[in-house]
Amino acid sequence: MKVGFYQFSPRFGEVGQNLEAVASRLAGVQADLIVLPELFATGYQFVSKSEVAELAEPVPAGPTTQCLIEIARRQEIFLVAGLAEKDRDRCYNSAVLVGPKGFLACYRKTHLFFEETLYFVPGDTGFKVWDIGIAKVGLLICFDWFYPEAARTLALQGAEVLCHPSNLVLPHCPDAMITRCLENGIFSITANRTGVEERGGKKPLRYIGQSEVVAPTGAVLCRASMDGEEIGLADIDPRRARVKSLNPYNDLFKDRRRALYEI
Known about the structure:
- The protein is of the alpha/beta class.
- The protein has a single domain (2-260), classed as Carbon-nitrogen hydrolase (Nitrilase/N-carbamoyl-D-aminoacid amidohydrolase, 4-Layer Sandwich), CATH 3.60.110.
- The chain is 22% helix and 29% strand.
- It contains 6 helices and 16 strands.
- The chain has a 6-stranded mixed sheet.
- Helix 1 (15-26) runs parallel beside helix 3.
- The longest helix has 13 residues, at 63-75.
- The chain is globular.
- It starts with a strand and ends in a 12-residue tail after the last strand.
């Protein structure tokens, strides 16, 4: 299958314009699975809860998810994208999975980062794996990568590809995802954004780009620049993620000594 990411710099609060940019840029892209950044339609640097509530949307009824569904249907593609989700009086930093037949799943970010803790409710969906036919995928959002239990939980459930919408400002993740893939024997697709946000007198947030596709061997199959708008694509075989043996004597999962890991 062909997988990839779209790395770009969304304009804060310009949901319609950001959706149009994604639809236009993805038109004609030949791929099976594309990942978009975290909060790709709204921007990231909120300044108040009321601002979040105004821009957040229900899932799957909101315009962002509906636009993604239409793109997926038209191009016969699976998409994973981060968005601000509204559920009654709560707002979540979420990601949706849609495909040619419509809405499939919503994941709510488990590990909130920095000022997200002021504006969003910690996710309650847990880590789940979805079989999309051509692969089994698991979803993480940005700072979730910092917790190895997140990727391991998905891998133990059979995930072959981690889809990882992000708004990375720390420098560590692009290289750290190599370790996440190695220790779990899986593929990952990290879709980061670029640009700078400086709102409400806050310290500027500078996004590091470097979206990437990483193989179970730790090989970086595709990595974007730090500041360019780019679509990155790579050919992968998800079946490689089902093989956990490293050599005739070692198996990533069978060799785990769970009784000694308890705290």
